[in-house]
# Entry
Amino acid sequence: AQSVAQPEDQVNVAEGNPLTVKCTYSVSGNPYLFWYVQYPNRGLQFLLKYITGDNLVKGSYGFEAEFNKSQTSFHLKKPSALVSDSALYFCAVRDLYGSSNTGKLIFGQGTTLQVKP
Amino acid sequence: NAGVMQNPRHLVRRRGQEARLRCSPMKGHSHVYWYRQLPEEGLKFMVYLQKENIIDESGMPKERFSAEFPKEGPSILRIQQVVRGDSAAYFCASSPGQGGNTIYFGEGSWLTVV
# Structure
């Protein structure tokens, strides 16, 4: 079965410091990977995706993610965190190889990012 | 280009009533997905529809829940005889296709069952 895992429920970082939110995946083919952010009582906003090509993907709001096939990881990063980055972050994989393989997104449990001033 | 539009944003229903949640996909998008987010939990897939067809309903509860995406008009998620456990945020998302296409989410409909 296709899946993603976010091993940290919460990540705390000081403003101005680099941040990393971890994601590992398990798929039986080439993965299509996504990151979304959710602010309180709001919907999910798309940040970036990896389909193919360069392993370093740049996205919205200064975020980037590195695809690592050997470690089956797709960690979200930002060089300098802002207090306004505090939110819930979801990693997701497109279900293209599972028993249903209908292309729906399968989400990790989410990681709360807390950036302190 | 308007995003994915969901309404109502907030809905309160008494136990036993029906809840209808509506979703208009982004312009040009023919694929619609519904997800549910329970308090303090992640997003759970419910159903995937294309115009007039249910493609994947593997996440839908067997009873009381139904979804449609008619040829004209919005997609509807219908919950009959609501119970307290149905209280959640329901998110609709749309995409122009499968594969590497991005799936965009609406702002959600928050259902509270009292």
User: Anything to note?
Assistant: The interface with chain B takes residues 32, 34, 36, 41-46, 49, 51-52, 90, 94, 96, 100, 102-110 of chain A (CB under 8 Å). Chain A has a mean pLDDT of 93. The two ends of chain A are 41 Å apart (CA to CA).
